[in-house]
Amino acid sequence: MTNSVDLIARSGVEDGPINFMDLKAQQNVIRAEVDAVIQKVLDHGRYISGPEIDELEAELARRTGAVEVVGCASGTDALIIPLMGEGIGPGDAVFIPGFTYNATANAVLAVGATPVFVDIDPKTFNICTDHLEAQIDATLAGGKLTPKAIIAVDLFGLPADYPTLTKIADKHGLFFMADAAQSFGGAIGDNPVGSLAPVSGTSFFPSKTLGCYGDGGAIFSMDKERADIWKSIRFHGTDDARKESLRVGINGRLDTIQAAILLVKLKIFDAEWENRNRAAQIYYERLSERLGLPPQVDGFKSSWGLFSGLARSGDDRARIQSHLQSKKIPSAIYYTMGLHVHHAFSAYAPDGGLPHCEDASTRILALPMHPYLTDENVHDICDAVLEVN
Ligand SMILES: Cc1ncc(COP(=O)(O)O)c(C=O)c1O
To answer: Which of 13, 103, 150, 279 could form a disulfide with 76 if both were Cys (CB 3.0 to 4.6 A apart)?
Structure first.
């Protein structure tokens, strides 16, 4: 078993530049094994629906406690396929946070449903449960759309408030799913991401905590029936014999080669999380007074998919970014706009906007976060941030 200290030594990156993410370092650790498993797929030739798909789905179910896992072509398909499976479409309202990647809204619109944007909790950056209730009530009162589903997003890797969200979904009889694209590896108590909502979707985009070498995703289900429907939808809606179309479907399959690569990456996943967590704890110790960081609440385990905090103002953020840049330290902004402000989604902007989404988008700043940062790297980053008054 690889331990977290080994990992950095084996990656050979100790004296290199600080990267925002570092897939090359990871590849240094696993390259020989990745070459071997790709060779194996080339040898058996089952590029679509090969044995590695079943193996990966079983391993993901084992790790997360999900009853069934269904691999799919992307994190976006991991949202679209369950929405299709529930028959959600025109006239249906799907409640989503306004501060997330555009894919969450795109998935809702792709099935013809209407996104209803909900503000975020200004501390955790996740969906605000009070505003969610208010938006459900307002939608019911409006009488134009039928509330059908909630998609919570675990922003930057921190699980949303699932205990409260589950109660709200149950109270209103809504389908409830997690957009866990950024949070694979997170948990609440003993329950890993993948088992926190009835349905969860994750992304294997290369930069995610579990990423492949292309596009990929997976859907986690706490019941078997739904998963059987998704397996059909991802294969053009066909029956098991692939002869008849039972329902409308898509080509939403995960490639065998990507599943093989993910199985290799899973072997070092826990050690990688340890390193992410070590970096995160140094950031918290040193930067809690300088940046608005989400509280570390007992029992809530982040995947540390990204490490973001709030600067004091937009100007402060710009000063920090330019000082970091002068020291060759990369940083990034997720996200520069709330979704309701984007041209494509502005028709769905709530009256009065979403104040916390808007404030976060002007102040949020992401610092380097990946498993191959040394303690010294993280201290150098903290020193640079603290040099900006
Ligand atoms: C919150 C969120 N949802 C959905 C997605 C979509 O994932 P993919 O790019 O694999 O389609 C992403 C990916 O960046 C994401 O961050």
So the answer is: 103
Residue 335 pLDDT level (bands cut at 50, 70, 90) = very high
Per-residue pLDDT band at 358 (split at 50, 70, 90):
very high
Q: Which of 99, 205, 308 to mutate to test the pocket of ligand 1 (most atoms within 8 A of CB)?
A: 205
Quote the ligand 1 centre to 203 CA distance (angstroms).
6
The rounded distance, in Å, linking the Cα atoms of 118 and 110 is 19
Alpha-carbon distance of 366 to 210, in angstroms, equals 19
pLDDT of residue 4: 73
Note if the pTM is more than 0.85: yes
Residues 217-233 pLDDT 10s = 999 999 999 999 999 99
Q: Any idea which architecture 4-12+268-386 has in CATH?
A: Alpha-Beta Complex (3.90)
- 104 C-alpha to ligand 1 centroid (Å): 7
C-alpha to C-alpha distance for 137 and 147, rounded to whole angstroms:
9
Q: Whose CA is nearest to atom 7 of ligand 1?
A: 75
Delimit the domains of the chain by residue range.
4-12+268-386, 39-267
Tens of pLDDT, residue by residue over 174-190, are 999 999 999 999 999 99
Ligand 1, atom nearest to 216 Cα: 10
Mutation probe of ligand 1 site: the residue of 21, 72, 74, 76 with most atoms within 8 A of C-beta:
76
Give the class (CATH, top level) of 39-267. alpha beta
Q: 136: Cβ–Cβ under 8 A, 6 or more apart, which residues?
A: 95, 147, 168, 172, 174
Pocket of ligand 1 (CB under 6 A): 74-76, 100-101, 103-104, 153, 179, 181-182, 203, 205, 215, 217
pLDDT attached to residue 2: 67
325/318 Cα distance (integer angstroms): 10
Best of 81, 102, 125, 182 to mutate for ligand 1, by most ligand atoms within 8 A of CB?
182
- Could you give the angle at which helices 256-267 and 51-64 cross, rounded to 10 degrees? 40
